[in-house]
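Minutes, project huddle
Topic: does the predicted pose make sense with phosphoenolpyruvate bound?
PN asked that the exact inputs be recorded in the minutes so nobody has to dig through chat later. Recorded below.
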Amino acid sequence: MTKFTGKGVYGAVAIGKAVVFRRQDAQVKRQHVEDTAAEIARLSAAEDAAIAQLEEIYNKALTEVGEANAQIFEIHRMMVEDEDFNESIIGMINSRNVNAEYAVAVAADNFAAMFSSMDDAYMQARAADIRDISNRIIKCLSDSTSAGSKLTESVIICADDLAPSETVLLDKDKVLAFVTAHGSSNSHTAILARSMNIPAIIGVGTDFLSAVSDGDTAIADGFTGEFILSPDASALSAAQEKKKQDEEKRDLLQKLKGKDNVTRDGRKINIFANIGSADSIGEALINDAGGIGLFRSEFLYLESSDYPGEEEQFRVYKRVLESMAGRKVIIRTLDIGADKQADYFMLGKEENPALGLRGVRLCLARPEIFLTQLRALYRASVYGTLGIMFPMITSASEIRDIYALCSKAKDQLADAGIEYSDKVELGIMIETPAAAIISDSLAPLVDFFSVGTNDLIQYTLACDRQNPDLERFCDTHHEAVMRLIEFTAKNAHKHKKWIGICGELAADTSLTKAFINMGIDELSVSPSFVLRVREAVRQIDLRKGAKKTDDKEMADI
Ligand code: PEP
Ligand code: MG
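Predicted holo structure (tokens), as shared on screen:
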């Protein structure tokens, strides 16, 4: 039995087989091939496919990011065709009877090492390009996707780290838990784990990965952050007991379904759910969410290998609105960038991606992408109660630019004779200190505010939410953050607008009373937290001198 400790980011216990998540580029195995001519033909077909892909990407980049930026794909194409590179691969297949994937990977390693050792900085940078094209050829050689997305049984996924795009592609029904060597509790992977109800532990350290063999029995305790490999009988029975108790507590919470979110002295609040896909609507409904407070629409883009079209998006938004049967649904427009990357956006490398072209900035820089989403949203608006929310706002001028595009999208629909609703609420996320500080001027422009505490904390405390080393400096209850929220709530109400919180802090029940005192009207949390927050709300008494009731009373309420 070996114990590793990290930080639990979703409290639940999983017991099952552990599997190491391997990315495709780490999967290349050396295999013996007899028919080398057939292997070379396979290589040539894969290179043709890679070239076709690169030409397509080049053309797309040309129109979207200009010739100078598109040039890199032309260079990649030339690299695939490079004679020396190909001679090296073919020579290896012929002389060592190895499979094409292996020969490509070894040739790429050799060329990358050669480029890296050159004095010229430009040539050194070509090492990354050669690895990039070798991955592309290897992908074309085998159409298999990453190990984790092809799970055949339920497992605990062990990984160095997981990008949001990798996490969304996992077969959620087969993931018992996530355990990662790195990661931070506010990363989107951690958020996804919470919204998927999956025990998750981050920051376990790299050693644990070499200790895990696929199929080992393991315990992932998301409450304590402990990951136990090959547990002995007593650890196993303790974990089974804890899992049972947790399930009983969840069952108890079910008794709160259908009850109001009301404090003992009668203050009501909305408790909504955060979701990342239409498939999570069931979870939101089972947990009795009053509406959807945040639909992270970017996951639709992260799950795709190309821009989702208007029709595809419309169908998803319509499904969400119809499933919520008139309850409010707030869909956040595309918040791609920073840690949420989709290759086909071809975003340039940024020194500080969290401070870069993300969220609404990207949408304003690429209005065609934004207009497609806005048309899809407005088309869906007739099927329920829709609110549209815009991320990463810092100035009033952005809101004006957004509104101009909303009008354009509506005009385009009207010209095409397509129906849309005029009752769509438009709101903004308050997730930059700038937006909070000027909330007095922003409030008259919008219907509502929703505080994105994950980013508000990151930007206020200057703590990269992706950096696990900053956890100790990142006090999520910091006075500066609390004051900004309170100040924004005052400004919202001054202008008779409602204000919610949709960042992870909304589910922190140690703050529920403080938030209600600030006048927060809505808390939007992962579906599995809805009833826990309801429980907390129902135990609060805002009257002076009133004491908090204890847990046991919960069932009687
Ligand atoms: C936030 O920043 O709090 C938020 C809800 O948005 P995201 O976590 O997707 O950045
Ligand atoms: Mg955010």
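Observations noted during the meeting:
- The two ends are 43 Å apart (CA to CA).
- The first helix runs from residue 36 to 65.
No decisions taken; revisit at the next huddle.
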